[in-house]
Amino acid sequence: MRLNRHVAGWLMATPLSLVLALFLLLPIGMIVIVSFWGATEFSIYPAFQFDNYEFLFGSPVTYSVFINTFKYAVVTWFFTLTIGFTVAYFLAFHVRSLTWQIALFLVCTIPFWTSNIIRMISWIPFLGRNGLANSTLISWGVIDEPVEWLLFSDFSVILTFVHLYTLFMVVPIFNTMMRIDKSLIEAAYDNGATGFQTLTNIIIPLTKPGIMIGSIFVVTLVMGDFITVRFMSGSQSANVGRLISNDIALLQYPSAAATAVVLLATVLIVIAVLLRFVDIRKEL
Amino acid sequence: MATPPDLQLVNLTKRYGTTTAVDAINHHFRAGVYACLLGPSGCGKSSTLRMIAGHESVSDGSVVLGGTDVSHLPPAKRGTAMMFQNYALFPHLSVTDNVAFSLKMKGVDTATRRKRAAEMLELVDMSAQAERLPAQLSGGQQQRVALARALITQPQVLLLDEPLSALDPFLRIRMRSELKKLQRELGITFIHVTHGQDEALALADEIVVMNNAVIEQSGAARDVFNAPRTDFVARFMGGHNVIALPHGGQVAVRSDRISLTDPSAGRLEGRIMTIEYQGTAVTLNVRATGDQDIAALIPEEQYFANPLTEGTAVGLTWEDVAMHSLHA
Fold this sequence. Notes:
The complex is a heterodimer. Chain A contains 13 helices and 2 strands; from the N terminus they run αββαααααααααααα. Chain A is mostly helical. Chain A has one domain (64-283): Orthogonal Bundle (MetI-like fold), CATH 1.10.3720. In chain A, strand 1 (38-39) and strand 2 (44-45) form a beta hairpin. Chain B is of the alpha+beta class. Helix content of chain B is 28%, strand content 33%. In chain B, helix 4 (110-123) crosses helix 5 (139-151). The model of chain B has no long low-confidence stretch (mean pLDDT 90).
């Protein structure tokens, strides 16, 4: 039996389309629909009203929480990029043998053998008032009394974010760097470029797609996070994710849905802006 | 322009761990010469070139350019420039920016370096493609850009690492004549690494044949081809038969210097194994005394005046002057 090529193409695309429709488009559609519903203290009812959005955009809390979310995203992005680029650079250009490259790369992934929550919580005994960091600093005589801002602060939140997500920077950047022809580095050297000039004129421009993919990972993860902020700030800071989780805890599903829609739109805009800078298609 | 300096290699050695890639070679490249480093892969020719360029550290000995030991200078300070095998053009930069790269590194202002790059592109006839990216160029065009990028540094010695190997055979022949022409115009020393003897013969004023980390023979192209000193050189240059004589000793005789006679009248006796028509000539592969395979290249007309069949017994002979005794 010979199927029409057209039909065969559609049939082959069907399974993935169904999965995406069922598990991605449908839930998002539901969230968008529910975001227009109304809610009382104990129930939600179908409607088409803009109350949730009006409340959201009318509240100063929303703006400060969004700004806080951006702050986490930008600072985390900066540190993960700096550390991730350095690690990837070391692995790709300073480690000569492939065996060592693979071995060291695997070492980088070891933290991923435990769950996010455990890696997060393990910072608490380290950073706490009587934690390892404080007691060490005191015993060295660097400080006289425990530093308060180490734990349950923006510092600890960002530290944890950086710890959790740096690998998401390392992997795509390393991948892009490994594709850079080593003779380009020699050619730059042959043309009189110093190490730093080679970095800024050759390596960074050629690594841009990897940097961009890593940035999208990190920004998306940080902007959608709520558990890290809750644990590591000791519930003293908020980001959009926590706003949504609080609404859900109060059974305010329509309000949570509206916030989620706005967050989704924000993240999509951020990614769209990032993609305008670099064409990542050739990396995929 | 000042007279370009000579390049000397003095006991130049490269060791990687326990293996020796280049074993204490000595050579003197006269200024303005087109020299080919010729040899099979792994013979040390690329390591030698990379040591001259400064991309490989020198284990022992030195590279002397114009009387100065440059062995430990960075590549850009030696007065050499290298053209890489795959051209190594920067994929994110336009042709002009590629060519102007070294000037940008020196801090030359944009207007000046664009002007100089334009002159270089003029020289290699690539002005029309100045704003393209390397990926938009053909192999031959990429090579010209790579040449322009190397020449803009005004090197005294240009080092070419198998520059033609990435091109198709037709383009290879065209580009090699352009290389030769450019070298004549510029008057600087070209050192060209290749494993193709035809390329070396076509281009080089001087051929340096390398094998097993040492120089087997060097000299003018005709001298090396016509009077190979070792059996390796004779075999590698091609067109030669390495023949063990019945009364001892090994000689090289060019295939086209061998002629056929009666079985008893020749210096060697043999039987024709295969006959190959080559257009201008016919190659007869003869199994001679002592199980040696010897090729005789007979001009076409001469052969077809008296055609032979496979399996015929023949005698092989040649004149004394055509015979070069070989050192081990």
